[in-house]
Amino acid sequence: MKALRALAAVLLTAGMLTVGTSCSGGDVAARVNGEVITKAEWETRFEALKKQGNFNFEGVDGEATMIEVKQRALDELIDDVLIRQEAARRGIDISDAQVQEMIDRARAGFENEEAFNEALEMQGIDPDGMDDYFRSRLTKEGLIESLNSDTNVTDEEIQAYYEQNIQTFQEEEKSTIAHILFAPQDIETAEKVLAEIKGGAEFGGMARQYSLDESSRDNDGQVSSQLPFTKEIQAAIDTLEPDVVYGDVVKDGQGLHIVKVVDRTPERTIPLDEATERIRAMIVQQRGRDDYYNLIQDLREQAEIEVVLQELRVPGAQSGE
Q1: What's domain 173-266's architecture?
Q2: Which end of the chain is least crowded, N or C, by CB within 10 Å?
Q3: Inter-residue contact 176 to 262 (CB < 8 Å)
Q4: What global pTM score does this model have?
Q5: Phi/psi class of residue 194: alpha, beta or left (left: φ > 0; alpha: ψ in -120 to 50)?
């Protein structure tokens, strides 16, 4: 599921750039500087957007919603062509090796090829055409990089960003815990091990010997602080200071636990000096996004765009003059 969400985020962020083809006049959805967008491409993009979104095409507003999504599909395709044309003008060329590397990285998050292809299809992408998709995404990234956004960020800008977004620099209390997991019925062993730890036995050694939790057993029983704890474990650790073992065996839906707090970081506001480089990167990234979308707007204004689809034609849509 995490891999699917990650891929979905990539696809939605990048958009679905496509490769234009030549066709007869009756199959044309639009022309961008003479380059054709086919009705088939437009219909495919529309179907992809339908899969991505939870649109309601029924009822009083259904028809208006459908037209809006169809227009969005065509707008995305127009932008795709403009991106590709501008990238070519700037000499941005994506190699087959770069495309394959990106595909391999995306595929690595899935158990097998079938799961990867299923994720692509859920986002409206034909697995047989994914080379074109990933090449187009790399083209977009290359175009953004070519904009050479201003990377000079002043101390005043960083200070202002920090003060305006102070809520994003709040950190909640974090606890790193270690536990030893036993089967629900193994209370005698759990209590015996707890007594040995209270008597001076090393917690990590006992975890390696007894714990049923394979993910933490070889790490002295330590559990990632990013994982949510069950309410029973949370109630136990809330009473503990660091390096202290809870006095009783804790029972929850997973089984029986011996619990220890390894470390606790109190809630805090990240200070400005610690957040400076993070803020600098955020500001530069935002400038890059702004420059990119300003470029798209300029390209649209300068382009000759002819919308052939009668249902989407609007006054003034035939050119970017």
Answers
A1: Roll (3.10)
A2: N
A3: yes
A4: 0.60
A5: alpha
